[in-house]
């Protein structure tokens, strides 16, 4: 089966379908967000990055175990791990598989200063041999049929040494038996400044497919994916196997619906009406209350409310209202005030 111009995505033994994924987003891609992404068109969704120590230490009686819960309707689902040594990466990966995740992703990309200072995330790009050792040990520990991938950036910085380190790491991951990588087109030190380099992503895919003769090794592109037509164009121009939407999908699950339509050469749905936004925001909030409880859900959802407000014509007023929200009652009062009391779910016709 083909999807218009785009081939179906497969990572190792895992058949995903349309090459449209939700990226792992620290502090955001919890179960409610992932389920909305899947409902609105993402073929696959990653949970937010887990610290290996967190996964190891979570007990079955702890409330934190909810973060690791995978329902059958969530599958297939991916989990991303971050740490600094194999001693903790390996048992954490095994525990995530016990929880029901179908794919493990190793984070060698996070650019947060606190993370780098603890020799985690993007720091490991600057020590490729250490990252390769971690990947080898995880690959040897988990079943061969479980896809194992890694998240990378184009380097630690823009130096020639960093470029050499990137390709040393990429070669090592291929040789270690990983099934693919997701590459963000910025360096670690760039964080989110400047423009993502999709020419580099094209170079990476060509290197993997031609020089390494591994067309089966999946390359996912990340960075600056905000508009459906541009997303499709970047996918075509770079030749990567799929795209993972990150910041562009926070507070805008409709981007998956629009991008899916563009990939299928269908008419792109318009932006949602306020009533349609209300229906989705209310659904998101109710799912958060189910997961976190009525007391904690409003706090967790504030950042999502701020993100949703960007689509509202009175963005600043709505942003401030969501940012101050403390109770479920206040949340729905904001919806009544700014989004109307009538719920319009007609946008769902585009998901059929």
What is the rounded distance between the termini? 18 Å
Q: Secondary-structure element sequence? A: EEEHEEHEHEHHEHEHEHEHHHHH
Shape, principal axes of CA atoms: globular
Order of the strands making up the biggest sheet = 3-4-6-7-8-9-10-11
Give the biggest beta sheet. 8 strands, parallel, barrel
Residue runs with pLDDT of under 50 for 5 or more positions: none
Number of helices: 13
Total beta-strand segments: 11
Helix content: 40-55%
Structural class: alpha/beta
Please report which band the strand proportion falls in: under 5%, 5-15%, 15-25%, 25-35%, 35-45% or over 45%.
5-15%
Query: What value does the average pLDDT take?
Result: 93
- Tell me the radius of gyration: 20 Å
Describe the structure.
Strand 10 (218-222), helix 8 and strand 11 (242-245) form a beta-alpha-beta unit. Strands 3-4-6-7-8-9-10-11 form an 8-stranded parallel β-barrel, surrounded by 7 helices. The chain has 13 helices and 11 strands. The protein is 43% helix and 13% strand. The mean pLDDT is 93.
């Amino acid at each position: 089966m083909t999807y218009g111009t785009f081939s179906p995505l497969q990572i190792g033994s895992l058949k995903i379908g349309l090459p449209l994924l939700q990226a792992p987003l620290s502090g955001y891609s919890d179960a409610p967000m992932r389920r909305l992404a899947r409902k609105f068109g993402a073929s696959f969704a990653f949970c937010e990055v887990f610290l290996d120590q967190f996964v190891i230490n979570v007990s079955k009686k702890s409330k934190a175990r909810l973060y690791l819960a995978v329902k059958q309707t969530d599958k297939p689902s991916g989990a991303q791990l971050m740490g600094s040594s194999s001693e903790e990466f390996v048992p954490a990966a095994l525990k995530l598989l016990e929880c029901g995740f179908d794919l493990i992703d190793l984070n060698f990309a996070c650019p947060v200063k606190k993370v780098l200072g603890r020799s985690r995330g993007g720091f490991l790009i600057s020590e490729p041999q250490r990252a390769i050792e971690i990947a080898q040990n995880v690959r040897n520990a988990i079943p061969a049929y479980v896809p194992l991938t890694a998240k990378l950036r184009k380097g630690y910085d823009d130096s020639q040494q960093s470029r050499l380190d990137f390709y040393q790491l990429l070669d090592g991951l291929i040789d270690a038996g990983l099934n693919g990588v997701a590459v963000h087109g910025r360096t670690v030190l760039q964080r989110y400044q400047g423009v993502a380099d999709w020419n580099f992503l094209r170079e990476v895919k060509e290197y993997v497919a031609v020089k390494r003769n591994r067309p089966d090794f999946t390359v996912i592109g990340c960075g600056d994916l905000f508009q459906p037509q541009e997303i499709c164009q970047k996918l075509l121009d770079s030749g990567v196997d799929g795209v993972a939407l990150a910041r562009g999908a926070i507070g805008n699950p409709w981007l998956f619906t629009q991008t899916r339509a563009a990939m299928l050469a269908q008419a792109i749905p318009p932006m949602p009406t306020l009533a349609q936004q209300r229906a989705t925001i209310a659904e998101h909030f109710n799912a958060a209350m189910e997961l976190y409880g009525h007391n904690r859900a409003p706090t967790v959802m504030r950042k999502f409310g701020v993100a949703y407000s960007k689509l509202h014509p009175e963005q600043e007023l709505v942003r401030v209202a969501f940012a101050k929200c403390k109770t479920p009652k206040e949340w729905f009062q904001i919806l009544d005030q700014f989004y109307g009391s009538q719920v319009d779910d007609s946008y769902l016709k585009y998901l059929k």
